[in-house]
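chain below, 425 aa
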Amino acid sequence: MISALGTGDSKLEARKMAKSLVIVESPAKAKTINKYLGSGYTVKASMGHVMDLPKKDLGVNIEKDFKPHYVVIPSKKDVIHELKTAAGKADAIYLAADPDREGEAICAHLRELLNSRKLKFYRVVFNEITRDAVREAFEHPGSIDAHLVEAQQARRILDRLVGYQVSPLLWEKVKRGISAGRVQTVALRLIVEREREIQAFKKQEYWTITALVEGRNPPAFEARLLKYQGKELEVPDQASADRHVAAARAAGFVVESVTTKEKRKYPVPPFITSKLQQEGVRKLHFSAKKTMMLAQRLYEGVELADEGSVGLITYMRTDSTRVAETALGAARDYVRNNFGEAYLPAEPIRYKSKLLTCAYRADFVCFESVIIETKAIATLTSADQAQLINELKATGAESLQHKRLVLNLSENLRQSAKSAEEIYL
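prediction:
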């Protein structure tokens, strides 16, 4: 959980006295973070991965426990030279890549390339790029998580072992230049198995019988014939259907029983990565790649007219629906202050993850602050960004487009709120 930090923290101010190099993944993220850290820090971007398996060789020693052989990516030599120059002028290096397996691997490779006895290396992790979150992370730096690094390496090795053998087959049979890996091969297997089931399916004719009935009081409603003489009804052909229709027309209709049920409706769970991608396709017609590209930019920082570069959403790669207590508290405070205690439930809904453990350290995808003025959205640099951020603001499924927030807003609140812009996280 990320909590707020006062601006006058002595430890952070002391670190500013020394020269420190901060390395992030992208220039946009570097620009946003640099604004929060001040002159005591130099922020540079690695532009993603700096080391990878070689392109022209397998790069994995199968005979020695699948040991990978990483090399410097040729296109990153100038970046590495720049980082080494900056590291030579620093007393400490803060590795601030994204909080996932890929980010952890980038940090491990950067430490390997920049390693020096005189330098101290720190790993800083934050799920949102705001002043408080960044300062909190730098106040409590940690170390590189070897388990996450190994997890990324295992995934990369599996990609190489599968893709290095499957891709040449695709070049020969389908089209040269395309590639396959651990994901595509499994997806293809699922498609093939499903297609075989479709081809093996034997068509069987069936009929349904529905009556339009009306009592003393409107409206009319449909009733479907399910049982005949106490047994489940199957109508295999038109002749059987005609007989049952004739019998039904000759019979009388009686309401045997009426069951009334109360159904409680809850807000939809918060966005996780897969749901964000699905909604991007379903509502905005964005590809998964485009949705994640836009979300990455919103996370790293967008220029707002009055505030400069600001990170607008939390980290977008997560399997967790957990809500940070600070975010939940801010949302509940907003409802209490703007609508009153009558509209605030005693306890918020807490969704449990379907997984026993979550893949990443991030919470669900949400806004950095409870209220972002609508006029600020208009200043975004791209119409696509505005569309995606509006989808993050609201589900669009109800007349009041409430945010995917794990807060059990009452029906009265949903019906009385004048603007969807007012209730979201």
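The first strand starts at residue 20 and ends at 24. The chain has 14 helices and 14 strands.
thats it, cya
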